[in-house]
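lol ok so funny story. i was supposed to be doing the assay writeup but got distracted and ended up predicting the structure for this chain instead. priorities right. anyway since i did it might as well share w the group, maybe its usefull for someone
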Amino acid sequence: MTKLGLAIAALLAGATPAHASTVFMGSYPDKMLIVDEATGTVKDRITLASGLPTSMRISNDNKKIYVTTITTSGIEVIDTATKKVVNSFSLNTPTTRYRFNGGVPDPSGKFFYTTLQKFEKLQDRWLVSPQMFAVIDLTKKAVTRTAEVPEEDSRNPNAGWRTGYMMSNDGKTLFLIRDKVLIVDTADLKVKDRLEVSKPEATGIEGVSFGGGVETLRSATEYVSMFTAQDPYIRNKVYGVGRFNLATKAFDFRPIGPAPVGGGMGGLQVSKDMKEGWTVVTQEKVGNKRCEFWHLDLTTNLVKNKAEFPCRSRFQFGSSGDSKLLYIYGASYDIEMYDAQTLQHVKTVDLGNDTTGAGMIITQ
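and the output, tada:
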């Protein structure tokens, strides 16, 4: 082969990814979009028999995606290799309904742990249960065990919808991460410990709370999120990165700078080497609303650069599998793509479907 031919071959080889990434995204009214990340092409649309997807969770081995749906309170299990639904069921019956969002499978893939409420239809009324820890048997396709959430842990009515779920590698401990970390024994569904992350020891800062949005779970043993906090004296608010280690049960946070005024931040995305992070900051509301990307150096806890981007009334924030692109999507028919280093707009991809708040999961 000539030198020119070798050069062209090398160029083509470099332009073709060794493993094409696939993006899974929930969409209205009952679809899962299968998107080729390299081209932005929707390759398939999977119909979910149980209805509208509201959350997704990938197994630790990356082989299964567990989708919760709201239409009939169902669970759909998708095989990431074949991109097919391998298990599908609804919990609702004509006289019994459930309400839950999100959860985590155990290491065996046989059970799904979550918090929920149960609604039973009586002759003259609906009987509403308190908030409960629940185990859903994925083989029997039913709720098989429940335990009432202690009153002190259920005072926030939105807690069940804003909870991060993690499971220990041995399947014996369930972690619920919200305003505090609840450590639950999976054998009896009892809370065995509470970590008050809002007042970490020896820091001089209190009121710590994990940020909202869809977090990137890069590790099965560590939960990483944005947080905001304030000192107990003059109430200056700061933001930073919080890390919760499932093995040691230690919570660590590193302040980065003053928190945005009149807005919020969330949706932390982290690179695979955990050295870089990106978040979205919104300030003010409606006509004065301003949205920015903040690019973080997680080794020095410094902001590397910032860039404004056009706000939407509602949106979600994500990143590509290789962390080279940032995504703004949700409540729309498209994905806006930005370069992760320069924070400049790259292109807009039309999905042809209105996406839900279930987020996105990217597989190789």
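The first strand starts at residue 22 and ends at 27. Residues 10 and 144 are 57 Å apart (CA to CA).
back to the writeup now i swear
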